[in-house]
Design a protein that fits this description.
The complex is a heterodimer of chains A (400) and B (103).
Chain A lengths: L2 H5 L2 E7 L4 H5 L17 E3 L5 E3 L18 H9 L14 H9 L2 H4 L12 H9 L1 E3 L2 E2 L6 H10 L20 H7 L6 E5 L9 H7 L4 E3 H10 L5 E4 L6 E3 L2 E3 L10 H16 L2 H5 L1 E7 L23 H4 L16 E4 L7 E3 L4 E2 L2 H11 L7 H5 L18 E3 L2
Parallel strand pairs in A: 1-8, 1-11, 4-13, 5-14, 6-7, 6-8
Antiparallel strand pairs in A: 2-3, 4-12, 9-10, 11-12
Helix pairs in contact in A: 3-4
Chain B lengths: L2 E3 L16 H14 L18 H15 L6 H18 L11
Helix pairs in contact in B: 1-2
The chains are: A alpha/beta (400), B mainly alpha (103).
Chain lengths: 400, 103
């Protein structure tokens, strides 16, 4: 076993909200051609037939308002540009048309192709270039948040393609239940920001197993004390609210929340781990986004192993069923560990959110059969901790 | 490697009067699904269809989450409460179970 895996004791996943790979990291291609980002020539046609190119004009806030549509029918339009024939080819040509439908404004619809330059996102782009960035990490479903966030917890969404309430179906159990029921038992937690932000995993886990949950403050304390569980899933702050310590700014980066607040949040998670040397040496941190939020990406989502469920036409809203046999739009994903070679670009492999429970299960539990077909087929990522000796460098972020 | 100073968002970024997104609306619906199973005395008594802003959403989310996961109250308060409880338990250790709880 590589020394990095020998030393590994903790896996931490931070899942942010609603930004595509190209939007956040696409500009890194200019620094490293191995990164499958933007050349600057990618384009969509707008509703007048004019060619609209991607532009490095993304702003932290107030630009993607109204929120781009990212429900199943809208994402279908974004990926297939309205083609409903069978078979059909994903061409990523419907993003501007989809955003136009939000407020019938041709000029505004072009903003869905805007992307950030690296200087605007110093935390995310530094971590991407210092550790491992995935060229092919896709949302699990071409749809919205709730069904996509089910995949890191369960390896499936139990047939859901929407934001509706869903209930766990046997035989699949959450990764947390698997961990705590194992022999020997492992530890696992979901850390939400605070009670006013809460979690997106409500009707199954928070309602029935509240002992699995803790807060961001507890995460910071656990990092400092060296009491982090074997597996941790961290959720950002989903709304602006008044907290005990004053104004709590949403840090999830969901449009129209401030992207810089998310940068600070990501840095705080990284810092909390890195500031404890023993924890830093024994932890892999995955930073990933739940889905693209309707924002442009140039890579067509690939086909995938069907999930064993079928969403009916009434549920998809496209007039067609969906067999969970195609992934959603590509999202930013970065793996951080001192055992990863600097500047790693993960190419030629496909990952999705089912890769998270697949990886955690493989590392901590080994053989575990009652998993969804998607999770069983999902690639795992701990092989990226490949260095023979631990790095002693790594960026430091000053957040105050 | 040099220390990277992470820029702070402007003060104007905060807007608790921002209309709720589809995500927050659905988070509220999920919480409401759970709240319906609470005993009536533990209902939030917040009419969720009237929630229009993030600040209002946060108030509702906080109330229902506190009922589901009271341990999620601010850690500093939790620690103090735990300490008080521990102290109280040690004082009342030999007293009969019918002893009223120390407040």
């Amino acid at each position: 076993m590589p020394p990095g895996l020998d030393s590994l004791k903790h896996i931490v996943v931070l899942m942010m909200e609603n930004r595509s790979f190209d939007h956040m990291l696409g500009a890194l291609k200019a620094q490293n051609p191995l990164i499958d980002g933007l050349t600057g020539n990618e384009s969509n046609l707008d509703t007048t037939g004019a060619t609209i190119k991607v532009q490095p004009l993304a702003e932290f806030q107030s630009q993607l308002d109204p929120d781009p549509d990212h429900h199943f029918p809208a994402v279908d339009l974004q990926i297939f540009n309205g083609d409903t024939s069978n078979p059909r080819v994903a061409n990523m040509q419907g993003f501007v048309k989809s955003y136009y439908q939000q407020q019938n404004d041709v000029g505004h619809s072009a903003k869905i192709l805007y992307y950030f330059t690296p200087d605007k996102l110093p935390v995310l782009t530094t971590l991407a270039t210092e550790f491992a960035v995935f060229n092919g990490w896709f949302a699990s479903i071409p749809g919205p948040t709730i069904c996509n966030r089910a995949f890191p917890h369960y390896g499936t969404s139990f047939g859901q393609v929407s934001m509706d309430v869903f209930y766990v179906k046997e035989p699949y159990k959450s990764i947390y239940e698997r961990m705590i029921a194992a022999n020997p038992a492992h530890t696992a937690k979901i850390y939400y920001f605070d009670q006013a932000s809460s979690t997106m995993e409500i009707v199954n886990l928070l309602q029935n197993q509240p002992q699995l949950f803790a807060t961001y403050d507890q995460f910071l304390s656990d990092c400092k004390a060296g009491t982090l569980p074997d597996y941790s899933f961290v959720e950002p702050n989903y709304n602006d609210h008044d907290g005990d310590d004053g104004e709590e700014l949403a840090s999830d980066q969901h449009p129209d929340h401030n992207v810089q607040a998310g940068e600070l949040f990501i840095a705080s998670i990284y810092n909390a781990i890195k500031e404890n040397p023993a924890l830093w040496a024994s932890t892999a941190l995955l930073i990933v986004y739940d889905e693209h939020g309707g924002i442009y990406d140039h890579v067509p989502p690939p086909a995938c192993t069907p999930d064993g469920f079928v969403a009916q036409p009434n549920d998809t809203g496209t007039g067609m069923p969906f067999a969970f046999d195609r992934l959603g739009v590509r999202v930013p994903a970065i793996l951080v560990s001192p055992w990863i070679p600097k500047g790693t670009v993960v190419t030629g492999r496909v990952f999705e959110h089912a890769s998270i429970p697949a990886t955690v299960t493989k590392f901590f539990l080994g053989d575990y059969d009652p998993r969804s077909p998607r999770e069983k087929a999902a690639d795992t990522f701990l092989d990226l901790l490949s260095l023979p000796t631990m790095r002693t460098d790594g960026p430091e972020f000053q957040t105050s | 490697m040099a220390v990277i100073k992470v820029p702070q968002p402007p003060k104007s970024a905060f807007n608790k009067n921002r209309p709720v997104s589809a995500l927050l609306k659905n988070q509220i619906l999920h919480l409401h699904e759970v709240e319906r199973k609470f005993p009536p005395a533990q209902h939030s008594n917040i009419y969720i269809n009237a929630i229009k802003t993030e600040g209002e959403a946060a108030a509702y989310i906080q109330k229902v989450t506190a009922r589901l996961h009271p341990e999620g109250a601010k850690r500093v308060r939790f620690d103090i409460a735990a300490a008080v409880e521990t102290k109280a338990k040690s004082r009342t250790k030999s007293k009969p179970k019918s002893q009223p709880k120390r407040k």
